[in-house]
Model the fold of this input.
Amino acid sequence: MCALLLAGLLSVVTAAAAGPGTPGLLYLAGFETAGSPSFVLGDLQGQGGWGVHSGQAEVVPSGFGGGVQSLRARGADVELGMAYSANVVWVDFIVAGEGSDLQPMLPGGSASAVLVLSSQRGVLALDGDGDGNGVFLAATKQGGGIGNAPRRVSLRIDYLDQRYDLWVDGFLRLAGLGFKDRAISSLGSFRWLSGNLGSMDDFSVSLLGLDRDGDSDGLSDLGEVKLHATRPDQADTDQDGVSDGSEVHGGSDPLSPGEGWRITLQVIDGSHHRIGFPTVSGRNYFLESRSSFLPPHVWLKVLGLTPSGGDGNPGFFTLPNGIDPVFYRVISEP
Ligand SMILES: [Ca+2]
Ligand SMILES: [Ca+2]
Ligand SMILES: [Ca+2]
Done:
């Protein structure tokens, strides 16, 4: 009864683990000492509900999903028992590995979702016929191997319809795939065959997913409970007037009231001043200005400035001092 990741082969199959106390989040393992469940460095066997059937799997002091620890496995067959009867369950994790260069093969035993990380073809997912067979479909672009780059894989498993959908790196890639075996009617366990060498982090099982933003704040329900610890049913968790999504995208803390995203103005000397603002990695920032708040309401891009690439540190635009009043705003783009 499983979902399965092959070489990684991934199948979700059995056990009982306590949820970390967040509604909708059934299980969360960042493989951290401070987490719940908590993990210590070394052999995975018996930690957090995980079992190692064969090979070597250990918690190592390097995190790639956030935190400082992750799971590393070599030639391993590991399994997390996780019995939970819900019609729809989300399994979400980050995985990295060399991938298998063999033809994808069907795993033995019953399984719902089956994924293969292929060194040649990237992430493959089985579109099962319910009778133990099926065809593997590529979820990522042809010719793109897994290449050791960490991939976030999210599965929406519907036990009522016996179908599953696959997201890779937050994007829906394949939908309505059939189960390998139709005998499976609920989540039983999650199984991972690591192949030669693989790593995993940020593993969760939840009722919340990526397909819904219940409070319309720009963050998915799952992203809120898993990545940001914000409330999926409140658009502004810390109630400081800036929405969770704006705070996350802008680089301020959505859990600290008053730490809303804001720009600062500093006079440097008699001839220059600078505009400061928080940034997040991967976003670009540019400056707009206007001379008054009277109509017409037009903001104009301040020319002659290089857009600032966000890196998590404060960004600045330096400008000559003027005589006329001027208002600034910083625009952030993905
Ligand atoms: Ca939301
Ligand atoms: Ca929220
Ligand atoms: Ca807020």
